[in-house]
């Protein structure tokens, strides 16, 4: 069963072009990652954002372990950006990125 979390999704949607970083907080296992990676990503794609303009990374996933290094992460993101169109960078467990405040 999918709980749509319409209120929280609309908060993300309504503030997506204000130039500020969005931070989703909440207790453990309450659906923050689902909201970001499934619901918000689906909204973006349905709204016409090309999939290659959505950069996703979950730092607690072993597959992305090397990108916990800020230099490697920065290089990866810069290489993904290929034009002047808006890009969305969706990050989960960003506190696992070394020096995340600087990146």
Q: How would you describe the overall organization of this protein?
A:
The protein is of the alpha+beta class. The chain has one domain. It has 3 helices and 2 strands. A two-stranded parallel sheet has the order 1-2. Helix 1 crosses helix 2. The radius of gyration is 14 Å and the shape is globular.
Keywords:
34% helix, two-stranded parallel ribbon, single chain, 103 residues, alpha+beta
Helix- and strand-based class? alpha+beta
- Number of domain units: 1
| Largest sheet features | 2 strands, parallel
- How far apart the termini lie comes to 36 Å
Residue runs with pLDDT of under 50 for 5 or more positions: none
Short description:
The protein has 103 residues and is an alpha+beta fold.
Per-chain topology:
Layout: H1 6-14, H2 32-46, E1 54-58, H3 70-80, E2 88-92
Helix pairs in contact: 1-2
């Amino acid at each position: 069963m999918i709980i749509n979390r319409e209120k929280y999704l609309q908060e993300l949607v309504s503030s997506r072009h204000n130039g500020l970083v969005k931070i989703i907080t909440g207790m453990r296992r309450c659906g923050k990652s689902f909201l970001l990676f499934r619901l918000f990503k689906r909204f973006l794609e349905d709204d016409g954002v090309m999939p290659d303009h959505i950069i996703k990374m979950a730092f607690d996933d072993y597959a992305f372990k090397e990108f916990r290094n800020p230099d490697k992460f920065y290089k990866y993101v810069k290489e993904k950006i290929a034009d002047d169109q808006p890009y969305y960078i969706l990050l989960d467990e960003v506190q696992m990125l070394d020096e995340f405040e600087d990146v």
